[in-house]
Amino acid sequence: MRVWTVHLPPGAAAGSVPSTAKPGKAPLLLREGWSFWALIFGPLWLLRHGCWALGLASLAVVLGASLLPAPWDIAVVAALHMALCLHGQDARRWTLARRGWKLVHVVAGRDEEGATFRLLHAEPRLARLFAGEAA
Questions:
Q1: Across 42-51, average pLDDT
Q2: Which of 13, 44, 59, 101 lies most in the core, judged by the most C-beta atoms within 10 Å?
């Protein structure tokens, strides 16, 4: 089982789909834990997920590490990628919170579909928001 956090877009209430919510904004489930793709791609993974401040800062660290002597440059970049691997999902949650998204629930499931099913079973009021995603 994996643990997922459920985030609602700005302006969305748990009981209804308000007219102020943008059409493409559906609830988002983020998986807890480490990210393989953040380990491999590091700063590019952050930029792809909209974590601009941290992505650009980590890209600057990677570029700055090229100025270090031979054994230290690889160590700095490897440490940065490991930190992003372990805390990349936390950075995404932090970015969503800064943009006004609300953390409303934590749910466990084998995959995202199973977690969504368990979420809707526990909180049927959220079904309207997920139905807006399909429309």
A1: 95
A2: 101
